[in-house]
Input
Amino acid sequence: MKIRGDILRTYQSIHTWTGIIAGLVLFIGFYAGSLSMFEDEISLWATPSTHQLSQVPTEDLDSLIDIATSKFDKAQQGFTLNFNENYSPMTWSEEGGGRGLQLDHIVRHATLSNQGELVTQVELSNELGDLIDTLHRTAGIVGKIGHEDIGVLILGIAAILYFLALISGVIFLLPTLTKSFFALRQNKGANRFWLDSHNLVGVISLPFHLIISLTVVVFAFHDALYGGLSVAYGDKPLFERPTKAPTEYSIKQLPGIDTYFNKVSELTDGYEIYSLEFSGLSSKQPSLGIIVFSEQEMMRSNTGDIIYMNPYTLKPTFSSIQLSEEEVYVPYIASFFSLHFGGFGGELGKWVYFIMGLLGAFLFYSGNLLWLEKRRKKQVKQSKSNRFMASLTIGICLGSILSVVCTLLMSKWLYIFDAQINLSYITCYYIVFFAAVLYSFARGAARSAIHIQQALFVVCVFIPLTTILANTVPSLTLWSVDNYSGYIVEFIALGFAGIFYYGFLKTKQRAFHGEPNSIWSLPVDSPSLAVTKKIAIEQN
Amino acid sequence: MARLLAHEKIQPHWWSKTLAGIFLGLSLSYALVIIFAWYGPGGIDAPAKVQFNMWIISPIWLLIFSFTYMFKTGLKAALYLLGANITAYSLFFFLGWLS
Output
């Protein structure tokens, strides 16, 4: 396909500059987003299994609720029932709780003993999965304007630039697309190889990227977008105001649990209930959130669909599933969410989204490397702006991964030493992150790329080693890992260990044997290396 | 393809085109969405349609925005987008007057 040269040049500039501005925060958003596909598994992995109490048969739930709510006032306000055997059957908030990230959310777990007596314990809820999700949404940028996270808004702007980068990237790739799409030219130098793989990954995952960029813009700016829309709605309210009952409800009026099971099977088809979250039970506006799950459906997110209803009247107030014939727009809206969160295709779909997210991170990383390569000069010492960008890329990209991996490694040790777990996670993340960025600027991109990848390899290997230790030393057995999801973190950590070890070897190779007039080249200090380096210089 | 003369080529005009794409592109997108909101399938009262309307604003806006750079000059971008805005909003008010 032929496209005019001036159009190509215009869009090439757009691609370069939007990419370089937005690339780094998007890198964090993408790899952390990959990990957040396993958000619940990560929290469960980090929580000592002694925190969870054993499940009770469904027919005993009503008596569990009766006893618990008569003994504990907090439970009369609201509680959660979990039907997954990895979780306690009943929990409620003792302190904290509510929407958003809660670092000091203290939860009481409750179950019934074999004799039918109430057993409870209080634990600080582990928020590791939520913290990774927050990192995914904010790129680790803290602070708020009003009730909006600054990080979310910045990622929203980055997503606009990212959409421009996608469209412009496709436009200026079109003329050579058919010729060199599947070409991965390894013999034309590292530069060509990076470019080919950048293009290949970009084109094959284009639909995914278009969806992610557009949904992120909506997630960041929905309030503003609704604000604009309300002007055109005039006197029509955008949303129905929730109705309040004339008198306060009381928990004594609460129907039995099987009522909700019947209601869900009446409303939906083929969904199973994951959890019931009751709130405001002793108020005029009680609410029940039912998390339902079906691998056959396009669910709102990979953790399921949600139906809200009044727990006393069973009248639905909101549902992410189409409940009636008139709700023709609900499936479309559900699919927008689903396509972002990977709420379809079950376990395989989750892994596909995990890999797509990592490929996205690769796209931004390789894009930055190509930018550096394009501005490379035929001299040993590269320009100041190039050195700055290289250090920033290595420090932020590799540093952010290193900090997450260090936090994962610390997790079990923090429990063993009884630290305030969620605050320690945050402290650990930011210390390692800023240390890596400083190191990258102090020692230069070439050296820190080698060292940070080495560190990543070591830390990744130590994660499964810690698990083995925690499972074998009797005094440390806070965890009993006997299900598949319990090993996901170890499995992923080992995979990453391999990738980073390979990256470490390749980066070292490039530093000492690669093109000497490059930002990635390092001076040689051993005589044998100096000879090969000299040959490399002569060949150029 | 014959070589284009300097004045026939697309001028960069980064600032003016970007501003036109952001503001006029967004208002054009709103115009199209509110026509759909009031007169599209289900009308203004269809359940959950307001969410759908909100969702489609930014995709339309960003598509317009990303092709704004195809205009030869910043001025042309602004004029064409302004014209499209006037047409779309006129249509919206005309439909309102009809019903």
In short: The CA atoms of residues 36 and 53 of chain B lie 8 Å apart.
